[in-house]
Amino acid sequence: MFESLTDRMSKALRNLRGVGRLSESNMATALAEVRDALLSADVHFKVARDFIERVKTACIGKDVIASISPGQMAVKIIHDELVSILGGKTADVSRKRPLRIMLVGLHGSGKTTTAAKLARHLVKKEGCAKPVLVACDIHRPAAIDQLETLARNGGFLCHADRSKKDAPAIAVDGAEFARQNACDLIIFDTAGRLQVDVPLIEEIKKLNERVRPDEILLVADAALGQEAVNVAKTFHEALNLTGIILTKLDGDARGGAVLSMKSVTDVPVKFIGHGEKTEDFDIFHPDRMAQRILGMGDVVSLVEKAQEVVDEKEAGRLAEKLRRAEFNLEDFLSQLHQIKKMGSLGGMMKLVPGLNSLKIGEKEERMMRRTEAIIQSMTPRERQNPEILNGSRRSRIAKGSGAQISEVNAMLKQFEQMRKAMKMLRTPKGRDMMRMMGNGEFPTAPTAPPQNRSGFRRF
Fold first, then answer.
1. Which residues pair with 188 in a beta bridge?
2. Between the CA atoms of 206, 209, 211 and 212, what dihedral angle is there, to the nearest 10 degrees?
């Protein structure tokens, strides 16, 4: 998501950050590159044009804060304008209970999967206790079966009527089913088409009139680019949308539709889907998205993800073992499992400022899986006492994990180096070093520039 846009924006702003004085020439060059980056990411041309004009106007005559450079001020202005076109602030869903949500969109945009993802999110984050998914797609083969399976896997109720071919009538029956079962969340999964057509619009108009939903959310495929904006305009004119859910952001490296939606339709993006799992679904935060686009990372989202998936009791146990330098391979395996719950390594690195430019690909993910397989091929005794791993044991572990003996040896060597580093940090010298690092100081390498009297340099 946004990989291409982030790379080009970072390149365009890299030189600007160090500029001591803003001039018409260096601003023009930087903004031309920013405009090209936006257009190449499928941002609507009017949105890109207006964005550049607002940034240019804001930079001219702008008072520069004494503590930052003019170039940094320009980057801040660009950031603020990005937040603005993304919607300004996070858009909430209605707090009404029971909450009725109708999902609309084209065929293949991911409405049915999104229904289950949205239900899970509202149960976990918004306090909805008893959701029901209503199958109103009577056109797509197996649509009802898919929704029933997703509901069953999520532990939700599902209302479906295969005997009827009237979607609005099924929706009304679904609302009554929800009332009888005291459901506080009703999600209507409607039919889509390969393109916006009159029968599709008329059907969902009738459905809207019959059930009067509190939220009408368009599920749009981000890979459609500028076409997604046109789809949003058509549905909004017909239904008066309350929000947009952008899906498949994991498969679209450009992501320009996100930047265009709010400006062109004046309908906020409320949620984003970025994977196939039900947990691959998040609230859309304009400020955090702007930071990601500019390569600033997103620590808040990383912390929230960690809080959601990490077992606090297990994390505390591991932290205590780390503190006592008693960390073994059993603990290392547990830590790997916790990391895997948070998603891919590449995805996590994108959220860490300073590390978001690292290219973590399939090779690194494969190495992590191989490490996990090697440790799982050991007996519990071997994991707790790595020092007993002689040649024959290592050979058996390599065969059991499908790895080479050299890979097993390399992993054990790295683990031993990590344990030595932990033990060193328990010494007075190690504690002093950690204290200095906390104050912004690091030991100076022998080849470093001249040192101060303490032997350390501050940065």
1. 102, 134
2. 140
265-269-273 Cα angle (round to 5)? 135
Write phi, then psi, for 283 (nearest 5 degrees). -65, 145
Residue with tokens 């690092």: 437
Is residue 306 within a helix (H) or strand (E), and if so which, with residue range? Answer: helix 299-309
Kindly tell me the sign of the dihedral angle through the C-alpha atoms of 58, 62, 65, 66.
positive
Domain parsing of the chain, residue ranges: 3-85, 99-296, 309-426
| Token couple for 313 | 């009791």
Q: Does domain 309-426 have CATH number 1.10.260.30?
A: yes
The CB density around residue 283, as the number of other CB atoms within 10 Å, is 18
Question: DSSP secondary-structure letter at 133?
Answer: E
At which residue do the structure tokens 């501050």 appear?
458
> In the beta sheet, which residues pair with residue 136?
190
228 φψ region: left (φ > 0), alpha (ψ -120 to 50), beta (else):
alpha
Q: pLDDT per residue over 342-365, tens digit each? A: 666 555 555 554 445 555 556 777
CATH number of 3-85: 1.20.120.140
**pLDDT single digits (tens) 143-202:** 999 999 999 999 999 999 988 889 999 999 999 999 999 999 999 999 988 777 888 889
Q: Domain 99-296 has what CATH class? A: alpha beta
SS (H, E, C) 69-125: CHHHHHHHHHHHHHHHHCCCCCCCCCCCCCEEEEEECCCCCCHHHHHHHHHHHHHHH
